[in-house]
Write a structure and sequence with these properties.
Elements (H helix, E strand, L loop, with lengths): L4 H8 L7 H5 L9 E6 L2 E6 L6 E5 L2 H13 L6 E6 L4 H5 L2 E2 L4 E8 L13 E3 L4 H8 L20 E5 L5 E11 L4 E9 L8 H15 L4 E7 L3 H10 L1 E14 L3
Length: about 260
Amino acid sequence: MCVDTDAIRKILLADPVWSAYALADLREDLLPYCRWAVAGDGLALIFTGLEPPILLTVGSPKDVAAALAGASAQAALPEEVYLSVQKEHLPAIQRWYNVQTHRVMVRMVLGEEVDLPAVELPLTRLVPADVPRVEALIAQGGAYTPDGFAPFQMEDGFFFGVEDDAGGLAAMGGTHTLNYGEGVAAIGNVYTRSDCRGRGYARAITSEIASQLRAAGLPLLVLNVHSENQIARKLYDSLGFVEHCSFVEGSVKKRIA
């Protein structure tokens, strides 16, 4: 299993927008949760900080297949993983996992020269003590509900929300991960309660998160959106995010030998 971070970084920087999450995982505090396998320009990352672990792949399909074979030989492939992979890597992944159902996502990136709009809505900065309120909001459910939230994500502090009259949250958003050394952050967990939609909450929250991340010295800002979520895609378009690539997500289990 490869632990040469310089070699890993070189592969990831061939497409830093797609590799943003993996670049963020090069943080020293996150490296213990990472299993890296490299072959040529192909890379497979198993991130065990979430459940199920995330499988992310980078590089040519042939070399990704070789990296996965190397990971399997070292018993590093979990019984179940959550895919975050480009479509051309699915044939290589299908050798090890039953890839039956998945959803198509879009990776978007904010242009460095884009001027973000001023935020006029009153937003509340959310901190780790607000985790119960965040989890209560997400529990409302519905289409496109965030499924990648973990309490440790709030320790970085780039979460904002709109409070309702009862002291709960009507809307929220934050970061999935970030890495100051690599200059990268992934915006996520953006969600508005169904009875509060159409009020501009998600747009204001996303704009504020992006502004704060930029001010903190993180120039590469990405986010993921479901390919069928046209409302969200138009919102992100209006803020200056542009589509970089499509990819697939979904929980899959190992094939039975």
